[in-house]
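User: Sequence in, structure out. Go.
Assistant: Echoing your sequence, followed by the structure tokens.
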Amino acid sequence: MPTDYACQAAAEQAARGIAPVRALLLPAQRSAPAQQEEVSVVIRSFLGPDAAGRPPAPDDSAPRVEPVSAPMGAAVLLSFLDGLRADLSGALVDWYSSIPAQLPVTLGAPGAESPGQSPARLPNGWQSLADLQSNAQDVLTVLASRPRDGQQVGPAELSWRLALLEDVFSGALRRMGIPDQPAADCAAELTAATGSLFGLNRPTPRSAPAQHSPSY
């Protein structure tokens, strides 16, 4: 079973990874522009029509990235573990189709759940970390009960399954309107955080640097 420290570290890593996506999906409310002071009729007639001031320029700056709490990061990781479990049970398509509706709710967006789908994972204080620990153990149990050719599932297969989830999650984010680079970065960070729960601290096969044989 993953240790308390491993779950805490993974949740914090997931929180950092999901924060830019949350900023794009749930942009912070910008403060309303300050009311312009009224100019007296005498001064306005003296200064001309520009005295009333010009309308503020539109704000096209990137959304501000607010910190995400560890419990929210744990809730996102629980959703990622749901994807791993769905892959093992042949229901990965259902998990993929649920991301656009469930992820914003997990990240704090108001809205009703889609009918026919399981409820979204919600942050629940430090209980989310306990749930993360128990769910990771459940996934390990499922993996251990799936021998292939008489052998237990090893780290290599788990790494490839996580790499598949990375691609699927990144694609779901892009379909939600997240730009390519933030989507890829977020998916990679969540994949690494999930892998750390199982002791996988090396790059996934998708992001591992290519090794070339020396030329002679």
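User: And one key feature?
Assistant: The chain is about 55% helix and 0% strand.
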